Amino acid sequence: MEKYDVFICHNSKDKPEVEKIKSILQSQGIKTFYDEDNLIAFKKWKKQLQDHISEVKAFLVFISNNGTGPIQHEEIDFFLKEVLPKNSEIQTGLVILRNTGEGIINTVKNSYPEFKDFHYCDFRKEELNPMNKLILAITGREPESESITIITQPKSLTKTPQQPPHTDSISSKGIDYTKLIKLLSRREWEDANYLTYQLMIKAVGKNKYEKLTKEDLINFPCEDLLKIDELWVEHSNSKFGFSVQKDIYLSIGGKLDYIFDTPDWKDFGDQVGWRVNGQFLDDSERVEGEYTFDISAQKGHLPVLTEIYDPGIIICIFARIEACPQFNKDSLKLLNSHLGFPPDTSAIKAVEIINSLPNI
Predict the structure, then answer these.
(1) Tell me, what's the pLDDT at 74?
(2) DSSP designation for 161
């Protein structure tokens, strides 16, 4: 088996920046193990990762405001529990990417106290030449070039005037849904999924480093919940959305009673593709499988709040939908019949149709 100098442990959302760093490391003769480059087709990916983690000289954990992804969690757990105790000489540490807040760093260190013992490489401090420090830490020698930096897109000297967002894309809570609309219209489901959670955090008055709780959802703004749901439903042709998930859950006999270890909850997981081989994808006993951020996924598969997977949160969302009068489908169907629209036309689509009509 080929041996590598460095194992690159990263969240898939950070690939663009991580790949730039990887390319520079390779230019310095450092052999890197990187999933997309080195995983062999038709072999079990988890065993390949574990085999190579055990053989490397350095294990680098890249983090940003995207947090740590599910596969990244598995890699870190395996390294800290199975590899590091047997070989404490392996270079270990965090690589802090540019868009990383202190809250994320503290969260990772609290989740993995072992990292508190290692100094980290901080790419937020370009004046300290972090790339040089990273190469020196891995190889024990100064890089061939005196100062190596990551090339980024140059900033424009003149500011492009920003168009104000359309008023329909801003809720009464001041939440701007322009970006979510763009992501969903381009079918960038994974980014839209992540942004959905961030918008929900903002709608309850929390900052992006805080988590959504069951208590937050008891009085979650109905207008914002409806907006988020309608955008998902509209752009997926009624395949995705919280209301779609709620209807599936109730259709198999699910109850809004916050009891989750039931056949109904497990059947729901099977129906929407959140279970693989009898286990939920986010169970503590990790399974081989990931969420499918594609229109080919099962009906109701998205959105999924992967940052804080908790059945209680999901049921709270369903319960809030039930309580919000804006989700009253009978009223919407009645309005559509008066307007001459198909009965299942969403409120967003109805407004678009009305706005497109010529002035008389």
Answers:
(1) 84
(2) P
